[in-house]
Design a protein that fits this description.
single chain, alpha+beta, Uridine Diphospho-n-acetylenolpyruvylglucosamine Reductase, domain 2, Uridine Diphospho-n-acetylenolpyruvylglucosamine Reductase, domain 3, Vanillyl-alcohol Oxidase, Chain A, domain 3, 3 domains, eight-stranded antiparallel β-sheet, five-stranded antiparallel β-sheet, 19 strands, globular
């Protein structure tokens, strides 16, 4: 790692601090450790400087500071990216924790979001008006990173990727210019930002379309013994085949956690579960979920009418900050017998307490857009398959990562050929990033060359300029 003294001449950081309204933090300063502590505890990086801007002008000054010194520059929204892309080791990290304003325009049907917001910030604001935009599954995830990588969540089946709700952005370019991009303003840049990650500049504002959702939905989790896995996976396939767009389901297998909603006799035993969110009427939900709720003898049934915002944060406790995480993902065209057999086989003899494979149902609104409508592509994805492991510092890292890789290699033969760029780990080769964009890679590289020819924005799943 390059040290602070090697990268920043004496007094330069003081000059930057005197120029901006926000804060400039150096290693050892109050607040530096908190600013550089991210969700995946496996990632340890130490920036030379952390800048906490309070305005777009502060961002422009910081970009100029880094450009003039040829320093690496990263952006931290929620700090939730599994590869640790929020931090620049020895470079400059822009920490947006002081830019977290959410503005809901009810008559206009939009919400404007600053880059330091997490999903919970947006959901709380929009749900006051019975509105929502398409966001992810964990409320502490940063809106910026989720969106720039494409984004999906409980509303994807109804409305598409997160970027299908994106209407406009404000961005600071590598040259320090403040620009706005939409379908009519700089449409090439807007196309690239809709899935192309942080490769093109620093986004300082997102404008999203909103939809009437909630404030109450029928949602929660239902779990069975993994002894019933064959009938439960068949149930999942049957239900997702006929599901209305208002219903989203995810299926997971793992060893049961020591959770209060599970009887102690089940703790540590293999289980299979569905996470469900139904945004239709309670009567529709009751009818649509009847077969599931009547299946076998569930260990737990937490499906109930609840606030949509509560469902959006239900999984937060399953992904605590500071644990070590390792994932692999693929998009799937469907659930064949062979895929479900391979899926179940990964849990034979599994001893890890927090390793799991999740199948998220996506099929629906994605297919209503052209394949090249936004860099995210992958509109043939019917399911997202995510192989996940989590363990505390000092835990069995090698065994957990090896299980993830082995399970992923088995399941990827069923892939569409695409994968979710936001779930790529730090050790993924460039080829995996190219695979995630499939036929859109060359177009992305050309736009990268136009807006960032010197590859200033490279602390990301990097797209090399053409």
């Amino acid at each position: 790692m390059t040290t602070v003294l090697e990268t920043i001449p004496g007094g330069a950081s003081d000059d930057l601090a005197a120029t901006i309204d926000g804060r400039v933090l150096r290693p050892g300063d109050d607040g530096f450790e908190e600013a550089t502590r991210i969700w995946n505890g496996m990632i340890v990086k130490t920036p030379a400087l952390v800048v906490q801007p309070e305005s777009v002008a502060d961002v422009v000054a910081t970009v100029g500071f880094a450009r003039e010194r040829d320093m690496e520059l990263s952006m931290k929204g929620g700090g939730h990216n599994i590869a640790g892309l929020a931090l620049s080791d020895g470079g400059v990290t822009i920490d947006f924790s002081r830019m977290r304003r959410v503005m809901v325009d009810v008559p206009g049907g939009t919400v404007t979001v600053q880059p330091g917001c997490n999903l919970g910030d947006v959901d709380r604001a929009t749900q006051q008006h019975g509105l929502a935009t398409t966001l992810g599954f964990v409320s502490e995830t940063g809106v910026a990173g989720l969106t720039l990588g494409g984004g999906f969540g409980y509303l994807t089946r109804q409305f598409g990727w997160t970027v299908d709700d994106l209407l406009e952005v404000e961005m600071v370019t590598a040259a320090g210019e403040v620009v706005r991009a939409s379908r009519t303003q700089k449409p090439d840049l807007f196309w690239a930002l809709r899935g192309g990650g942080g490769n093109f500049g620093v986004v300082t504002e997102f404008v999203f379309k909103t939809h009437p959702v909630g404030p109450q939905v029928t949602a929660g989790l239902i779990a069975w013994s993994a002894d019933d896995a064959e009938t439960v996976t068949d149930l999942f396939r049957r239900m997702t085949d006929q599901a209305r767009l208002e219903m989203t389901m995810a299926m997971l297998m793992r060893n049961a956690p020591p959770a209060p909603w599970l009887g102690e006799e089940h703790h540590g035993k293999p289980m299979i579960a569905f996470v469900v969110c139904h945004t239709g009427t309670p009567e529709q939900a009751e009818a649509d979920l009847a077969e599931m709720r009547g299946h076998g003898e569930p260990w737990a049934d937490l499906i109930q009418v609840k606030d949509y915002a509560a469902q959006q944060s239900m999984l937060d406790a399953t992904q605590p900050k500071g644990m070590h995480y390792y994932w692999k993902s693929e998009f799937l065209p469907g659930l064949s017998d062979e895929l479900l057999s391979d899926y179940r086989a990964q849990f034979q003899g599994l001893e890890a307490p927090a390793s799991q494979i999740v199948l998220f149902h996506l099929d629906g609104a994605l297919a209503g857009f052209q394949e090249d409508d936004g860099a995210v592509g992958n509109r043939d994805a019917a399911f997202a398959c995510v192989v996940q492991s989590m363990w505390p510092a000092g835990g069995p890292a090698e065994a957990n990562t090896e299980w993830v890789r082995t399970a992923w290699q088995t399941l990827r033969r069923h892939s569409t050929g695409g994968n979710y760029v936001n779930f790529q780990t730090a050790d993924e080769p460039e080829e995996r990033t190219e695979e995630s964009y499939r036929g859109n890679w060359a177009r992305l590289a050309a736009i990268k060359a136009k807006y960032d020819p010197d590859n200033m924005f490279r602390v990301n799943r990097n797209i090399t300029p053409a």
